[in-house]
Amino acid sequence: MARTRLSDLRRQPPSQADFRSPVHDPRVVARVGVLLAAAIGTAFVTGLVSHLHQHPVAWLPFSPLPAWGFRLSQGLHVAAGLAALPLLLAKLYAAYPALFQRPRLRGPLHLLERGSVAVLVATAIFQLVTGLLNIFQWYPWSFSFVRVHFAVAWVLVGSVVIHVAVKLPTIAAALRRPLDQEVDGDHDGPTRRGFLAGIAVTVLGLTALTVGQTVTPLSGAAVLSPRQAGVGVQGVPVNRTARGAGVLDRATDPAWRLTVRGPGGTVRLSRAALEAMPQVTVVLPIACVEGWSTTATWQGVRVADLVAAVSDRDDADVRFVSLQEAGSYNESVLPGAYARHPDSVVALRLGGEPLHVDHGYPARLIAPNRPGVLQTKWLDRIEVVPA
């Protein structure tokens, strides 16, 4: 008799009634879901800003002001993505007993809900895992992270919108119900408030241990970040070294010249010639798409002064080409509004010292409100883009 009962139990899948913890409750799922949706929404909007900075469109031009705009946006992007990780795990834990609902499908609307959940979970895991690896600059795949990450973000947001639309009445009802109203009978595990408090502590703790890569006063606590604000060669982190970019010999060659080309002709300037031009000092942040950023003092020649030597147009876009021959960011285009801004500089010095070769010696671009990947290092030539 006992064997029969045991075999029967083994053949029977669990039901929702078998999960007795009050954490497995629509009230918890809805509250964690609101926080997760906020984190995903923040990451999506700030990621869109980052993408449009790197792939601009004519109908949505960016301004060089505020100078710290991209630093704030990208810092929020990475912080929101990291916060979404424990929130996603918490939501999956609170909601997974719903997988054992019977019947499995109750109609077309239920099928749409289940499908949106499957896509949401799959794309969220993909985005969080690949985004986390991007922070550490480890790419164990052959596809373009930027393109795929951007495309999957739209799928993720679409699945969130569909899921919320289908479940809105349930979500609204769950949010109206008080958390302290317990189910009848015994229950196992933490209380609903205790579970939510634990998630809040986890999210805040993870943020505190990583946000120092952007917020300088917290850099000492950023033990989970690969880079911290204010730490690195000349006080600035380095993503790619001159040796890694294959430009070390050319960058340190005394025969190096910066070519500046425009409709008014071409000039070739040595570093000494650049240093003989009027110098300016600007205090600007440099912010990387991996999430780290820091503010530094840069000295060099205004981009506008170099453009004026070869062009009478002050509204022209300007292309900056690196000595680095390979890679996605071996050149960049500085929009006209940026090129004529007085804080856009071809930098020769950092923190009062000559640029270290890993920071772009002999000359690099630095401009306000711009991703670090577009602050082209190891400049070879500057070209005024034809109208």
TrEMBL record:
GO terms assigned for molecular function: oxidoreductase activity
Residue ranges constituting the Oxidoreductase molybdopterin-binding domain according to the UniProt record: 254-385
Alphabetized Pfam families for the sequence: Oxidored_molyb
Residue spans crossing the bilayer: 28-52, 72-96, 117-139, 151-175, 195-215
Keywords: Membrane, Transmembrane, Transmembrane helix
Protein's GO biological process: respiratory electron transport chain
GO CC annotations, alphabetized: membrane
Domain of life of the native organism: Bacteria
UniProt feature, compositional bias: Basic and acidic residues: 1-11
Region entry Disordered, spans: 1-21
SUPFAM superfamilies to which the protein is assigned, alphabetical: Oxidoreductase molybdopterin-binding domain, Transmembrane di-heme cytochromes
The protein's name in its UniProt record: Molybdopterin-binding protein
Species whose genome carries this gene: Cellulomonas xylanilytica
